[in-house]
UniProtKB/TrEMBL annotation:
Residues 69-144 form the ACT domain. This is UPF0735 ACT domain-containing protein OXPF_03640. Belongs to the UPF0735 family. Pfam families: ACT_4 (PF13291).
Length: 145
């Protein structure tokens, strides 16, 4: 399934999406705050937060360094990491960190952080290209800054 991303002016969004972003900000600024407490502070349920937390992000237009961190669940096949890095390099993204866990039951988790300032195409296109690599089973965006 190809994901599509949209930039939507905040005043037309349902209030629940704004509250999810607010919870995420509270959790970023107060590392000791629990998800439950943050949800209570903005008056949304934890289930609502979990439902949307991976799909709703604030757009940071004024930040120079844009860093995206994502995880990939991949089949443990020789060359798959090389294919992933080649796809990223083709887009001119700057890889900052790579962490690959030991494969378990033929699957490995890879977490990659990259700088996107000089990319020649959008993050959405890159994610879709990575998703088209046969051995890639799942991709999740973990953070954007």
């Amino acid at each position: 399934m190809e994901l599509k991303y949209y930039i939507i002016e905040g005043s037309v969004l349902p209030e629940v999406f704004k509250k999810v972003v607010e919870v995420k900000k509270l959790l970023e600024t107060d590392m000791k705050m629990s998800i439950n407490t943050a949800c209570k502070n903005v008056d949304i349920s934890r289930s609502t937060y979990y439902k949307y937390k991976d799909s709703v992000f604030e757009f940071y237009e004024n930040k120079r360094a844009k860093i995206v961190t994502f995880s990939l669940n991949v089949q443990h096949v020789p060359g798959v990491l090389s294919n992933i890095l080649e796809t990223i390099a083709e887009s001119q993204a700057n890889v900052l960190t790579i962490n690959q866990n030991i494969p378990i039951n033929g699957m490995a988790l890879i977490v990659i952080s990259m700088e996107t300032v000089k990319m020649t195409r959008g993050v959405e296109d890159l994610i879709n290209s990575l998703r088209n690599i046969d051995e890639v089973r799942k991709i999740d965006i973990l953070s954007r800054s």
